[in-house]
Task: inverse folding
């Protein structure tokens, strides 16, 4: 399981990054410890964490000259683009997307009425 201390040193920011990532790709909580998927997810989350802590031009929402203020965008904006696509790709590679889940009977009740003949 990926924990906040694997993402970054600022506990509050790392927890928030992890929560946003789980909202995008819930499967990241189910990766086996030490698996390639978990390593990939941690690398993506660390990159997002570093981008947020750097607070570069990418995250500037607005600037004011009078009293020199800078407003930054939300943490979710750090996931725009590649990080979101990469996390979703990790989830789609771990489970067969579009496949049926559950327990299904081997014999269908309809086969008693209309037997299948090959």
Result:
């Amino acid at each position: 399981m990926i924990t906040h201390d694997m993402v970054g040193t600022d506990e509050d920011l790392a927890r928030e990054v992890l929560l946003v990532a789980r909202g995008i790709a819930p499967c990241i909580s189910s990766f086996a410890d030490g698996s390639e998927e978990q390593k990939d997810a941690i690398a993506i989350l660390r990159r997002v964490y570093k981008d947020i802590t750097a607070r570069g031009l990418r995250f500037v929402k607005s600037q004011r000259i009078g009293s020199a203020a800078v407003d930054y965008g939300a943490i979710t904006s750090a996931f725009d683009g590649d990080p979101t696509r990469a996390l979703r790709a990790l989830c789609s590679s771990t489970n067969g997307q579009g496949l049926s889940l559950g327990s299904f009977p081997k014999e269908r009740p309809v086969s008693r009425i209309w037997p299948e003949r090959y």
Remarks:
- The helical segments are 4-7, 11-24, 36-54, 82-94, 110-113.
- Residues 40 and 90 are 8 Å apart (CA to CA).
- The mean pLDDT is 78.
- The two ends are 48 Å apart (CA to CA).
